[in-house]
Write a structure and sequence with these properties.
It is a single chain. The chain is α+β, with helices and mostly antiparallel strands. Helix content is about 15%, strand content about 40%. Strands 1-2-3-4-5 form a five-stranded antiparallel sheet, with helices on one face. The protein is globular. The protein has a single domain, classed as Nuclear Transport Factor 2, Chain: A. The protein is built from two helices and five strands, in the order βααββββ.
Length: about 110
């Protein structure tokens, strides 16, 4: 569990977070401008704020060493509707690139 404002350790996806990842897939694809043939959640980190930030690493191409998307997702609090918003995309990234939250969100 993350403390308020701090990022959690990198974790494997659990079913709930994987559901969120697949829910925002269309928005990720729209922002990048392509429909991915594969979309495999790899790892994530989260940050508790007035809502929750997620940083996802998703494998989207297995050619060569593999290509990933790093996506920053904000989830509003349930009392604010719980909306999911893709706020930042880093693409292309390699499988070996570390999952690092944007500098402005690091504590």
């Amino acid at each position: 569990m993350s403390n308020f404002g701090g990022w959690s350790d990198i974790k494997l996806f659990n079913p709930e977070v994987k559901r969120i990842c697949f829910e925002v897939r269309p928005e990720i694809e729209k922002k990048i401008g392509t429909d991915f043939k594969i979309f495999i959640p790899v790892v994530y980190s989260s940050q508790l704020v007035a809502g929750k930030n997620y940083m996802f690493k998703v494998l989207v191409n297995v050619d060569g060493d593999g290509v990933c998307v790093h996506a920053l997702i904000f989830q509003a609090l349930p009392c604010d509707g719980g909306e999911l918003i893709v706020t930042e995309i880093q693409y292309p990234k390699s499988v070996d690139d570390p999952l690092i939250p944007p500098e402005h969100l690091q504590k």
